[in-house]
């Protein structure tokens, strides 16, 4: 079912429940009746947010942008620099580059692409040194290729 349709139907159901005289606790019960309506609304909101969503990794946006292989690096050198120095660039998995799972929706892929481009876009790193600008440029190209390959 379309996500927007589900949200609209859930909001309509909550509104009907709040306005309905038939509740778990009637509104005539005073504060308890209002709390009952509030708990139902919060429960539906929680359900909408977590329905069918895979568990989120506990990483920062910058770590997700680097990809799964860079989380152990602390030297400041990126994967791009290390592979460029060795000369053996393997084609990267586009899903790993964007930091999404293989079953991701178009919206999730688009949001991941935008988040990563915010980190590596050449306009964002214009005030950094030329080495970091080159790294960001290579990473931005890699992100664009991954997005085009998936999308």
Description:
- The chain is mostly helical and 151 residues long.
- The protein has two domains: 48 residues, no CATH class; 90 residues, Helix Hairpins (Orthogonal Bundle), CATH 1.10.287.110.
- 61% of the residues lie in helices and 0% in strands.
- It is built from seven helices and no strands.
- Helix 1 runs antiparallel to helix 2 and helix 6 runs antiparallel to helix 7.
- The radius of gyration is 23 Å and the shape is elongated.
- It starts with a helix and ends with a helix.
- About 13% of the residues have low confidence.
Unreliable stretches (pLDDT < 50, length at least 5) are 70-88
Number of domains: 2
Tally of separate helices: 7
What is the CATH homology-level superfamily of the largest domain? DnaJ domain
Task: Look up the CATH topology of the largest domain.
Answer: Helix Hairpins
General shape: elongated
- The helix-and-strand class reads mainly alpha
In N-to-C order, the SSE pattern is HHHHHHH
**Percentage of β-strand residues:** under 5%
> How would you state the average pLDDT, rounded?
74
Oligomer: single chain
Class of the largest domain, according to the CATH hierarchy?
Mainly Alpha
